[in-house]
Design brief:
single chain; alpha/beta; Rossmann fold; 2 domains; five-stranded mixed beta sheet; five-stranded parallel beta sheet; 14 helices; about 40% helix; elongated; binds nicotinamide-adenine-dinucleotide
Amino acid sequence: MAGTFPTVGFDVDETRLSTLRNGIDCSGEVAQDILVHSRLKLHSDPAALADSNVFIVAVPTPLTPGGKPDLGMLEDACTMIGKVMAPGATVVIESTVYPGTTEEVCGPALERASGLRCGVDFQIAYSPERLNPGDTRRDFASIVKLVAAQDRRTLDLVAAVYGSVVGAGVHRVDSIKVAEAAKLLENTQRDVNIALINEMAQICGLLGIRAADVLRAAGSKWNFLPFTPGLVGGHCVGIDPYYLADAAQRSGYHPRVILAARQVNEGMPAYVASRIVLAMAAQETRVRGARVGLLGITFKEGVPDIRNSKTVELAQALALYGIQAHIADPRADVYESRAAFGIELEDETDWGDLDVLVLAVPHAEFMARIYDQAEQSLRPQGLFVDLKAALDPALLPEDVFYMAL
Ligand SMILES: NC(=O)c1ccc[n+]([C@@H]2O[C@H](COP(=O)([O-])OP(=O)(O)OC[C@H]3O[C@@H](n4cnc5c(N)ncnc54)[C@H](O)[C@@H]3O)[C@@H](O)[C@H]2O)c1
């Protein structure tokens, strides 16, 4: 955006700004040389936004501790923009929200703070963020941008702004609510599909077969969708279905499939812990006080994001059996892990004599030496748990027991 338009990047977090000024994007999305040579001006003072006529809002939209949409940061951002924007401004919301939020929450917050009238003195639009974290093949410019606005002229403006920087182009949607719902459906569809495979993995466990083998066989049909079992953490797929469910419930509909999928996926850390303990019992390994190493705390491979980490939940589930798991992750920030979860990340190359080694998140750093890691850190007859079926068990040391979902 900054290469095409004079652009101010605003954040309330001064630490995030100073790392960006030093060319470091902690999310790992933007390369150092691009940041260093960018014309983007970074500020934490709202006054720096006063000359802007288009405002794009992409603040987090998490859940409350009770699992309801938490729009606090979004409302704060709108209030702040409302105080600095001038008549004629356009405010585009990119955060993931339930249908109706842009027009029923953001618009009124902007009106209250500015004293201006939405749709008359300023306009609102919605264009969801669709980045796939850690996906280096699909960057901002190569993902089609959905755009919707409260009137045709604003839609033309927003489509032109994004169209000039998104090579993949824009997809115009006639209503803001439709664009909001489309974003939620994208991630909910993913969640439901993963839940089905997670349920299948649990059935396979009871049948004494491996889900990975079943998936390989079923995947030979042209229309089989390639989803795999695993832990669903992070700030998108594990969160957005609750936004959709909340909107449905407030409209008088009880979503069954969406919430059942959430229940299955939320139950996976406890299920994996029980499978590990059952496997240990079958090997007559002492469970209480066993030495277990977990590789990966981030919500998926290739990213540093530890929000809604399911490895942490797996460690908590193992703790119920008397196992204090060790956790290593070269991508995650040591201080952030300590502050968020009280977890001291370790260096996996220090591990030895483990009873169980779990590959929870197959970062490239782990995969580069995973067979050596298994050899070095597992005791003879130790158990290797391959949560994402990421490796070839035939290449593991011969005296290692292998378990995948
Ligand atoms: N990051 C992604 O890849 C991605 C993909 C799809 C959708 N989304 C959606 O985009 C939104 C942002 O998510 P994110 O993960 O990129 O967030 P993030 O945490 O990475 O970044 C958001 C930034 O907003 C800042 N912030 C918080 N409150 C603010 C305020 N009042 N004013 C200004 N800045 C404020 C934070 O300090 C933070 O630096 C969410 O709704 C998310 O669901 C993100």
